[in-house]
Inverse folding.
C-alpha cells in the first residue's frame, strides 16, 4: 500500500521568510496530492491540491510542486505570517488516501 | 450554512465503558470517515462508509464500531475493547467525485478517567 513520508516534523521561520515542506510517496499510481492545514484544536482544512498531470500549482502565497519521476511533492509558503503557524499535512491518493505525519510550522513575529 | 459537526468537543471515558462520538454533515456527501490523531502523528483511518448501511474497516478498526443508518450521520463508538482510546478523533466527509478533498469536523478529544 501507499506510504507517505513528510519532512521536517517541525519548522520555525521568521515572519516574512519562506517555508518549504516536503513529502515523498511510494505508490506510483497515486494521482492526487492534497495539503491540509490544521490549527490548534480544529480539524484540518484543505489549502491546496495538485493532480498528477500538473507539475506546479500556485494560489497567492502558497504553491505546490510535484515530481512524479522522483515521487515527491512539496508545499511552498512565501512571505510567511504568524497566522500561517499550524500543523500541515500532505496526503497521496490512489484507491485510498495516506497522510504524512505532519509538520508543525511556527512563524515568529 | 453547510458543514460537518462533531460532538461533544471533549469526552471522558471510564474504565470498561463504551462511549459514542457524534458526526453529522449537511453537505449531502456520500462518503464519511473517522480518523484518529495522536500527538505528533498523522491521521490514521478507523472506519469509512461510502453509502448508507455499508461501511468498511480502516487501518485501526479494532475496538471501534460504527453505523450508517442515515446519509447525514456516522457515529463512532469506542468500546471497552479499545485499551488506549485517548486521542483526538476527526470525522470527515467527501463526494465520490472529489475523493481526497475531505471536509473535516472540529474533532472530539477523548480522554480516559
Amino acid at each position: 500500500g501507499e506510504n507517505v513520508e513528510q519532512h521536517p516534523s517541525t519548522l520555525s521561520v521568521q515572519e516574512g521568510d519562506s517555508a518549504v515542506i516536503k513529502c515523498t510517496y511510494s505508490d506510483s499510481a497515486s494521482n492526487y496530492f492534497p495539503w491540509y492545514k490544521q490549527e490548534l484544536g480544529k480539524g484540518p482544512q484543505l489549502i491546496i491540491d495538485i493532480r498528477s498531470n500538473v507539475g506546479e500549482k500556485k494560489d497567492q502565497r502558497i504553491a505546490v510542486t510535484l515530481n512524479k519521476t522522483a515521487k515527491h511533492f512539496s508545499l511552498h509558503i512565501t512571505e510567511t505570517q504568524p497566522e500561517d503557524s499550524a500543523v500541515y499535512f500532505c496526503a497521496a491518493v490512489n484507491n485510498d488516501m495516506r497522510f504524512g505525519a505532519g509538520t508543525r510550522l511556527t512563524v515568529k513575529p | 450554512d453547510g458543514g460537518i459537526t462533531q460532538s461533544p468537543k471533549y469526552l471522558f471515558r471510564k474504565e470498561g465503558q463504551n462511549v459514542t462520538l457524534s458526526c453529522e454533515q449537511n453537505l449531502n456527501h456520500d462518503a464519511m470517515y473517522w480518523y484518529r490523531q495522536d500527538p505528533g502523528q498523522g491521521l490514521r483511518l478507523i472506519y469509512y462508509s461510502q453509502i448508507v448501511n455499508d461501511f468498511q474497516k480502516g487501518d485501526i478498526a479494532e475496538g471501534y464500531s460504527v453505523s450508517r443508518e442515515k446519509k447525514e450521520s456516522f457515529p463512532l463508538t469506542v468500546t471497552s475493547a479499545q485499551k488506549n482510546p485517548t486521542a483526538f478523533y476527526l470525522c470527515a466527509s467527501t463526494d465520490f467525485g472529489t475523493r481526497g478533498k475531505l471536509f473535516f469536523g472540529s474533532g472530539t478529544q477523548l480522554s480516559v478517567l
Q: What stands out?
A: Chain B touches chain A through 17 residues (CB under 8 Å). The mean pLDDT of chain B is 92. The longest strand of chain B covers residues 43-51. Chain B has no helices and eleven strands.
